[in-house]
Amino acid sequence: MNFISLATATVLSALIQIHDIQGTAHRSPMDGQLVKDVPGIVTAVRSQGFYVQDPTPDTNDATSEGIFVFTTAAPTVAIGDAVSVNGKVSEFQPGGMNRASNLTITQIVDATITKVSSGNPLPAAVVLGRGGRAIPNRVISDDAVGGSVENAGTVFDPQDDGIDFYESLEGMQVQVNRAIAVSPTIAAGEIAVLADQGANAGIRTSRGGIVIRPTDFNPERIMIDDAITKKPPKVNVGDQFEGAIVGVIDYGFGNFKLQNTQPLSLVKSGNLQREVTDLSPTNNGLTIATFNVENLDLSDGSTKFKNLANRIVNNLKSPDIISLEEVQDNNGAIKDTVVDASQTYEALISAISAEQNAQGVAEETAYQYRQIDPVADQDGGEPGGNIRVGFLFNPNRVQFVDRPGGSSTSGVTVNSVGGVPQLSASPGRIDPANAAFRGSRKPLVGEFLFKGQTIFVIATHFNSKGGDQPLFGRFQPPKRSSETRRMEQATAVKDFVQQLLAAGTGRNLGGAANVVVMGDFNDFEFSDSLKIFKRAGLMNLTETLPQRDRYTYVYQGNSQALDHILVSPKLGKAPILDGFDVVHINAEFTKQDSDHDPNVARFIFADS
Questions:
Q1: With the C-alpha atoms ordered 47, 49, 54, 55, is the resulting torsion angle positive or negative?
Q2: Spatial distance between the Cα atoms of 315 and 553, rounded to a whole number of angstroms
Q3: Measured between alpha carbons, how far is 238 from 218 in angstroms, rounded to an integer?
Q4: pTM
Q5: Which parts of the sequence belong to the Endonuclease/exonuclease/phosphatase domain (predicted)?
Q6: Over 80: is that where the pLDDT of 13 sits?
Q7: Hey, what domains does the chain have and what are their CATH numbers?
Q8: C-alpha to C-alpha distance for 421 and 411, rounded to whole angstroms
Q9: Which of 110, 323, 363, 384 could form a disulfide with 335 if both were Cys (CB 3.0 to 4.6 A apart)?
Q10: Please, which residues have CB within 8 angstroms of residue 208's CB and are 6 or more apart in sequence?
Q11: 371, 497, 324, 490: which is closest to 423 by C-alpha?
């Protein structure tokens, strides 16, 4: 416990309560001032401080009645102690990747603590949701002046703005009743939930989650964290907590968090099952899928390869063509000169063949792969891992048109041969020297034949959202700086697609080339980067689904679509387009083979 001398500083002599310190803003009106005899009851204890709450609150919901007292060393107080605190008001900005974007936590530091009594009842927890304070369910912030909620003149509106709502509860005891999980338990020990089984929440997924919309990133999500009470249960999306969740409101890593002070209650399982697609290959039905396999390499061990094979064979029904993202080189994230991934691909293909044999659906010939090794450590991802995109295909169903000349640094071009587009190299990389792809995966295009028809398939993995400002950061609305690069990448791929379409005037093409662009775009169907393809005439099959089913990824409880299949006009309508499916097998589950769900589409081609 730390002590300070107040003899040389001006001390506020009037009775100061916690709500005076917290004020009605994101920063304390008393920041930097010394305070004396601040009363409260200890509600929770951490390794270097404790939470204290005033048992005699004011009548203003906009002012928090709780605060964190920082003690440097382990505090000697106990829950239920009534204390009187002297110290200095300070705004602490917690760390994380985007520390400069984080809000601050109002604290009392350099503290002298006097214990008044022990064993006191705790202040009643504020119920979030029904029977308590209504949680904003549309707006995170729409009142920021000059782009920051901390700027003077910003209206503090906890009734309508989620960021202000949680700020008005900072450090206080809260209670969530009938919580339902909208994320799995992640490695950091966090679970995103909705109160009251999702009553008054936004658009729910058909499997229990909650989807984002262009103007609604779901402020009603509550992040449960394990900083105080360890070992949270392993839950899947849709699982329910049978008892109330009680804890204090904290902030860190760009999010408000409920630090539960009691073990989480037993979970009632939602019995979530991994989906199985109905879109299997048929005589004239070509199935094409995209699957981010999350940093796959031999160091993952045989279990991951077996699990992925199981998903590909049993859940995806062995698609004819698969674009894979995040395939790593043979030895994974080791800083050396290895870029070859042949063993990684072959291990996955062997596992698929073994699973097909086990299920009695073995093909005459195993899957084959095509890809191009990157230049060492030039395509992002884990250092030394050399992730890349590539194709698996069933040679009994489709023919890959091999055309030499493709390399890691040479760009593929489009030739028109008798009114039919043809790649200069297959497989080939699209515009690899373009600055848009510096430090990021280069798109790969391959030429396939099915039923006499040529299909050009482009595999993509655009740059990540790393560096974007957090949804609950001080800058509002948050800037998505990473999207600038993705828009440049989308433009490069779009330009290449337009070359294919312009070259495709042959009779057997029906006036246009068959083009599929698919992969991990790291962006939403309504994003500016995906709109670039839409304006060029491509159809995003994600948008053929009901809004509640448009997701391939779950981030902080927000179900969202990052993986897409886009098609040229001819492929985007019946009778050729015969179905599209996001197969939910990973993102909603604590036990994952990848953090992404795959997509699959089926196209009908008549014999020619």
A1: positive
A2: 17
A3: 16
A4: 0.95
A5: 289-576
A6: no
A7: 18-117 (2.40.50.140), 124-271 (2.40.50), 285-604 (3.60.10.10)
A8: 16
A9: 384
A10: 180, 181, 182, 198, 237, 238, 270, 272, 588
A11: 497
